[in-house]
Amino acid sequence: MPTINFALADMEALIGKRLTEDDLDLLMTYAKGEFENYDKKTNEVTVSLDDTNLPYLWSAEGLARLFKGVLKLEKGHPKLEIKKSDYTLEVDKSVKEVRPHIAAFVAKGKKIDDYLLKQLVQLQEKFCESYGRRRQKVSIGLYSYKRITFPVKYTTVAPEKMSFVPLEMTDKLTLKEILEENPKGKEYGWILKDAKKYPILLDSKDEVLSFPPIINSNFTGRVEADDTDVFFEVTGTDEESILLATNIFAQALYDRGFDIFECKIKAEKPFSSPKPFNDSIVIPEDLAQSMLGLDLSKQDLLDLLKRARYDISGNKVMIPDYRRDILHPVDVVEDIAVMFGYENIPDAPLSSYTIGKRQPMTLQVNKTRDMVAGAGYLEVMSPILSNKSLLYEKMHTKDFGTVEISEYMSETYSVVRSWLTPILMDVLSKNTHVEYPQRIFEQGLTTQRTGSKITDSERIALATAHSDAGFTEIKQALDVVMKAKGVLYTLEPKTNVQCFIPGREASIIVNKKQVGIIGEISPQVLSTFGVEVPVSTLELDLSLF
Amino acid sequence: MSISDIAASLHPLERAVLPHLNEQDFDKIVSASKLKDVEVMRALQWLENKDVLKLKETLTEIVDLDKNGKEYANSGLPEFRFLNALTEDPQSVDAISKKAKLSHEEAQKSIGVLKQRSLIELTKSKGLQCHITSAGKKFQNKKSPEDAFLKSLPREMSSLSKDDQELLHQFRKRKSIITVSVKKHRAITITSTGKKLLEQKSSIDNIKDHLTPEMLRTKSWEKNSFRRYDVSAPVPRFFSGKKQPYREFLEEVRTHFLALGFTEMTGPVVETEFWNMDSLFMPQDHSARDIHDAYYIKEPTHATSLPEDMVKKVQAAHENGYTTGSRGWRYKFDVKRTHRHILRTHDTAISPRILSSKELTVPGKYFQLVRCFRYDVIDATHLPDFNQIGGFVVEEGLTLRHLSGLLKMFAKEFCNTDQVRVVPAYFPFTEPSASLYAKHPEMGWIELAGAGMFRPEMNAPLGVKDPVIAWGIGLDRVAMFNLGFKDIRQLFSHDLDFLRQARGI
Prior knowledge:
- Chain A is α+β, with helices and mostly antiparallel strands.
- Chain A is 29% helix and 27% strand.
- Chain A is built from 15 helices and 29 strands.
- Chain A starts with a strand and ends with a strand.
- Chain B has 23 helices and 17 strands.
- In chain B, helix 6 crosses helix 7, helix 6 packs across helix 8 and helix 17 packs antiparallel against helix 21.
């Protein structure tokens, strides 16, 4: 979820209207985002955006374009004029193997101050990180136009054969060394891990522009505060995404008053960029009305569409070139609803009669919880994620089949719990200073693995801890549960765990099936947990009977 | 309090000491009542509080014999034993010690004392020789004041004469002869209230502490009355069995949805990418699927089977929109990856299972309340696993207006507020999408729920023909507010004191 900053005065200038904080709060809902903060001292506004498929909104220019539609200040596609030029970019076939696509343009005629530079870098970074999949799919470069001699070449070189001074550095490094030593090289080097030759962008004097997608050169790849002209290029693995990036930047710079000059891309299939998609979609008649439940005239619809910055051509809705999120007519219908204003949509009640039904297990576990609480036990609730040290080592018990996480955040939460008794022991060990008797229980989901078979089971476990706690007391609790359920059980004096005192443990058998275990916790286990009173426990698998 | 009220509220201990108050002395009451010191003391203090008596404590110094003193009181002080063993003829110190049965140390001490009083003389010839003086002879085999003093002990310090005090002073310089201790003496004076109370002795005898089965059987209770309790007195803590407050909150929410006509669904903790994401039309390179968001499991890494027909349709939806007219996501769908196991990251993983199953009824309302797991740092706002509730409504003719109505009903049901706003939102599997914000009296605007209409690219492969409104509600913040918790980790607290005291909902 990208968060961006811009100056309130800048936004007001782009829209041509003063804005209050309340205005911003409301306008941001149209962008599927949130107005986070306005800092009066710095005039800086912070907003966050939810829609990861609409990167054009991650800039003041994009937001202003949307807001102008919402406020009825401008309708339809924004104006964009792309000037003819002789700027060319020659693409070598070898890039196909590693980073096949490139597009570029030149923008001229406006002074780039600190603020504007920050805005451009902000959009560049957000686009590449999120939409560009951490530069793998898309990476963008901005250059000082005056230092470049056209035509520019996009080609590949062997990692050791080329060297240049990376941005913000003083020493020449080979491409190989950049990946090994430069911070950006280390951060993004993974993208090129399988490549034998690396992509490189050179001008006609063989001056390095950049080593995409890693880093620009310190000479050309630095836009300075009094530049008025910039060269923009984008490389990547996905053609559509790099064209989208070009369109978004060209429109943003045009909105700012730059003149946009095309760049001819001399590739296998030559084209001139920015390359408009000229995409359109047909919205089936009545789709909007039937999805939204609104009675909209054709004129209403046209008006809403144009405020959402679409154009209409015959029966086609023309999609602006800075958007590629429209997969299906429903996406356009949503824009109609957004422009209509969610707050203006009258509610309709659900009128169908349906009967609520719970899962059979829900009823069973809750009745059992009632009985156990009635027997004097205090309920605890724990995370389902646990660890093998607690579940097995501390219980002196062998792993009987566990679902383990392959890359966990914390060792403490590295497996899915397979039984509950160890969790109750953990609770007791954290409460040795608390008044006894302690009688506790937990009911919840556990997961067991047998080979490749994974089974969830709803279990309940009880523990009684005090100076006189023993088998008799915990068996009384078992009787309470079983009698209330009307279930007959027998005890078989052995278990598959090693945490009990031998001769004081049993498997609970119902219908010849083992459904649980009961016993007195062994002094070895108690001392492992640092519990200094006797403890007896019982655990039942409620899914089994 | 009247005399009869006092009589009726007497504790059994008070009643036990009452007959012995005339002894007017604590120790005597203890021996007469056969109670423990502390019991008598408590009873007397309670009675004093009721103005039945006055307790007066005095401290007395007692002079008594110590270990050696006890021996000397019996067999005489060593110096006199030494003196008595002397004869006319000088003798060696060793011989005298032997005769008087004195240790070397006692003999030395005796010589010192006797010489100082000029009762003996010492000469040196063939070792140390001891002579008795004429003064010494006068003291031989006489009762000494020292012996008399020791025999008179124990005595109170205040009873000692001037001479005795001088003797005491001397003895205290010597080892383990005398001890001086302080003794508490408690004297009791019965007040006028007390005297009146004692006159009611017979009615006090009829006051009982406990109603017993025996009394009920024999009807003896008719002749008795029962002790009045101090009902405001604190009682020992009692720890009841109790259900966990957060769990009870979740059950309350569950019950609420059942009452609203929703049917409960459930699904496995270990899911496949297919049900968790792919069937929800989330493209396989979606950021929510990075290793840093979902937990993958070690073994088995992949599910062995999925409904492969449906997998093909979902694949088509991703690649080209299937039959929906959508452009699709236009990438090569990875069929192996769709089988990959993960821990369920959101409750919505269950919805496509139900939408594609034969159990689905239309119109229908469904919900699931389940634990979900995401790769995240655990802190005051993030738990290792968390509860989510969500579900869907499926019915012919559903529109965004129904979605808006449903969300506003949630606000009323769960936050008891009409101050809500429904705003546009983004979820990968719904279009249109909306978020519900409710204004909480204390927490301000909070995002209560997300909702939307499932995309056609999701519905078509699952075989769903009717519109589906999907929704999900964030439970944790509402639970914390309801339960008065400050830190999200308290939802899973293991502190038994906290849980014993935590209020329910």
